[in-house]
Design brief:
By secondary structure, this protein is α+β, with helices and mostly antiparallel strands. The chain folds into three domains: about 5-120, Glutamine synthetase, N-terminal domain (Ubiquitin-like (UB roll)); about 120-135 and about 270-425, Glutamine synthetase/guanido kinase, catalytic domain (Creatine Kinase, Chain A, domain 2, 2-Layer Sandwich), CATH 3.30.590; about 145-250, Creatine Kinase, Chain A, domain 2, CATH 3.30.590. The protein has 16 helices and 16 strands. The strands form three sheets. Strands 1, 2, 3, 4, 5 and 6 form a six-stranded mixed beta sheet that branches. Strands 7, 12, 13, 14, 15 and 16 form a six-stranded mixed beta sheet that branches. A four-stranded antiparallel beta sheet has the order 9-10-8-11. Strand 9 (about 190-195) and strand 10 (about 200-205) form a beta hairpin. The chain is globular. It starts with a helix and ends with a helix. This is Glutamine synthetase.
Length: about 450
């Protein structure tokens, strides 16, 4: 970042200032390696300075565990050093659920003006640019699931009692859900649907697809809006992979579609209109195959906690097996075709084995890198699966090339460290730091029961 860029950012902030005169401050947010949103704030009067020169923050947050203890890696840890948080002013929005505040995601720079190698938002932007250089773009969206408690302590007491997917749950909390939709609309989030989910007190919200960085920004913004509206209603929201040890957990499914520009007809969705299975194009299949091939390693960023593996179990719609299928909710990769007549727009790939403990920027960056590797190798998908893989015998699964995904965080981290594609795409700093944080959490919960793990993680994400 040179002087001209600092002057440009300062001028941009100065132009925004009159629109923000009624606000108290701006939240500058980023998501750490453990998937927790961390913040600093500045008064509106300081936004111009923050835009040009950043706000100081220790790099040790890269190695925070979910309980706020700190580990060390080769590239991060300890009390020494400083970074500068620079807000993305183009993404700055008023927080309708927190009157008096605006929010902007940040890019973290070194004091010398270079992007911090562990800035996951910048890494995601870089992966999107690498695809763009090949003539491709990705549209992405995260599904947001959460469980609501009306207990003001550490326990979880479902805030609604109605059946899964039932109208009763909408009736019980209609005022809360109305206020949530209103806050998201005023914040500029395009909600596509909202419904009660399976677990006690659980809901799910889907948003419109965006460019990858925008999709990750929106995932953070939606969750913090849910958290704030819940608090206003005397409720507490949990996004943890496992809220109750004996119930299903919260997923963080990722939807991806691959697009290319046709000079004559505009953007074309590679997930539809082709001659491969279910209308996939050759490129769409290759991208999907690249993701499927690397799912064991991808879980280190997409299912990144010890609690994630209490959720990732067969026959719970969590995607515990490395397979794919058309509208198969037990496959780790579900191909969504969409309604006949709308498939050129709607067809996409759903990654079902990820959860909301994931840093959305890092998760998407890794998925894009895996898909890009599939494109480069012209990879092919195996035969699609039309049943729950858990209902097959071991012999049948071996014949079909279907393996269970890692059953522990340690297995996933080991695969992550060994994966050359992810290593080349993300860089040694990220590989080492992610592994250090994951192994720190493994040690933290080494002697814990599922109930203790659930209780310790319930309110951290």
């Amino acid at each position: 970042m040179d002087g001209a860029e600092r002057d440009r950012l300062a001028a941009r902030a100065a132009r925004l200032a009159p629109e923000l005169h009624d606000l108290a401050g701006v939240v500058l947010g980023w998501v750490d390696t453990s998937g927790i949103t961390r913040v600093k704030t500045v008064p509106v009067a300081r936004l111009e300075h923050a835009a040009a020169w950043g706000v100081g923050m220790s790099p040790c947050f890269d190695v925070f565990l979910l309980d706020d203890s700190v580990v060390s890696g080769r590239y991060s840890g300890g009390p020494v050093g400083d970074l500068r948080l620079h807000p993305d002013l183009d993404r700055l929005v008023r927080l309708a659920a927190l009157p008096g505040w605006a929010w902007a995601p940040v890019t973290r720079y070194t004091q010398e003006g270079t992007v911090h190698p562990l800035d996951f938002r910048a890494v995601l932007a870089r992966e999107a640019e690498r695809l763009a250089d090949l003539g491709w773009s990705v549209r992405a969206a995260f599904e947001i699931e959460w469980c609501l408690s009306d207990d003001d302590g550490d326990r979880f007491t479902p805030a609604c009692k109605g059946p899964a997917y039932g109208m009763t749950r909408l009736t019980e909390l209609s005022g809360y859900l109305r206020d949530l939709l209103g806050a998201l609309d005023r914040t500029g989030v395009s909600v596509e649907q909202l419904h009660p989910e399976y677990a006690p007190g659980q809901y799910e919200l889907s948003v419109a697809a965006e460019d990858p960085v925008g999709a990750a920004d929106t995932a953070v913004l939606v969750r913090e809006t849910i958290r704030a509206v819940s608090s206003d209603h005397g409720l507490v929201a949990s996004f943890s992979p496992k809220v109750l040890a004996d119930s299903v957990g919260n997923g963080g499914h990722v939807h991806l579609s691959l697009w290319r520009d046709d000079p004559a007809g505009g953007p074309v969705n590679a997930m539809s209109g082709g001659h491969e299975p279910f209308g996939l194009t050759a490129e769409g299949e290759a991208f999907a195959a690249g993701v499927l091939d690397r799912l064991p390693a991808l879980l280190a960023v997409g299912a990144p906690t010890v609690a994630s593996y209490l959720r990732l179990i067969p026959s719970h719609w969590a995607g515990a097996y490395g397979c794919w299928g058309l509208e198969n909710r037990e496959a780790a990769l579900r191909l969504v075709q969409g309604a006949l007549g709308d498939r050129s727009r709607a067809a996409n790939l759903e990654v079902k084995c990820f959860d909301e403990a994931a840093n959305p920027y890092l998760a998407l960056a890794a998925l894009l890198a895996a898909g890009r590797a599939g494109l480069a190798a012209k990879s092919s998908l195996p035969e699609p699966l039309a049943v729950d893989p858990a209902t097959l015998s071991d012999t049948e699964r071996i014949r079909l090339g279907i393996a269970a995904l890692p059953e522990s965080l340690e297995e996933a981290v080991t695969a992550f460290e060994r994966d050359e594609v992810l290593g080349d795409a993300l860089g040694p700093e990220i590989i080492d730091t992610v592994a250090a944080v994951r192994r720190g959490e493994i040690e933290l919960f080494a002697q814990s029961s599922p109930e203790q793990i659930t209780e310790a993680t319930r309110w951290r994400h």
